[in-house]
Amino acid sequence: VQLVESGGGLVQPGGSLRLSCAASGITLDDYAIGWFRQAPGKEREGVSCTNRRDGNTFYADSVKERFIISSHAKNTLYLQMNNLKPEDTAVYYCVVDRTASWGCPTTERAVTDWGQGTQVTVSS
Q: How much is the average pLDDT of 94-121?
């Protein structure tokens, strides 16, 4: 399994970015998938996740109504991030939970596969 993130960068507060995660070795829609992030000096936290098999979708309270998770037929996971804030600055990781039959990974312990991460910096 290989997960490769892209789309990170430097953006001003209020701006938008779209992260992508290209998967190989698995079909993303067959599993629970999502995004985590880790800010400097903080623990990794679940940002958003989804599972097509039961329709479950999760957003952390801090990103609700600003971020949108979606997947594409070309085996790519996206995270559309709008109205970005300085506190969104972090390394963002694409994740998969290949063990879940329902629900999606909101804790590190549930994750079976990690991407290498992409840096998002929100600053003026």
A: 94
How many whole angstroms separate alpha carbon 19 and alpha carbon 42? 21
Q: Is the pLDDT of residue 73 over 80?
A: no
Cβ(6)–Cβ(22) below 8 Å? yes
SS3 109: helix
Q: How far apart are CA 22 and CA 15, in angstroms?
A: 23
Q: Is 110 helix (H, G, I), strand (E, B) or coil?
A: helix
Q: Are 68 and 17 in contact (CB under 8 A)?
A: no
**Residue 5, C-beta contacts closer than 8 angstroms, at least 6 positions apart:** 19, 20, 21, 92, 93, 94, 115, 116, 117, 118
Q: Is the pLDDT of residue 2 over 90?
A: yes
Asked if 1 contacts 113 with a C-beta cutoff of 8 angstroms, the reply is yes
